[in-house]
Amino acid sequence: MSYEKSLAHFRYDELDELVSLSIRDLIAAAIAGDCAAEPVAAFLMAWHDPESYGGFNLSDLWVMNEKSRQAAVVLFVWLSKNHVTPRELGLQIVFNAIAARWAY
What we know:
There is one protein chain. Helix content is 60%, strand content 0%. By secondary structure, it is mainly α. It has one domain (3-101). Helix 2 packs across helix 3 (37-48) and helix 2 (17-32) packs across helix 5 (66-81). The radius of gyration is 12 Å and the shape is globular. InterPro entries: DUF7673 (IPR056090).
């Protein structure tokens, strides 16, 4: 299943619009394959499974483009207040695709 199809299962109704858009932007950036994609993927994977992928380096924020950096900040602040995993938002398939894309 493509990540676009699996986003159909994303429970965006549980999030405010800014957080939902930020998550979608980060997922798109992580799969894009440009120079900023790998740090975005590392950020998302650290959220997905911190025991296995918790090595996100905060200096990787410097490599992200402004849109991804702002989206990461929005998600980080939201996560500090809401104890929610990607699985609980219906994003398991998408995050599995990101892990496979970057061979984590």
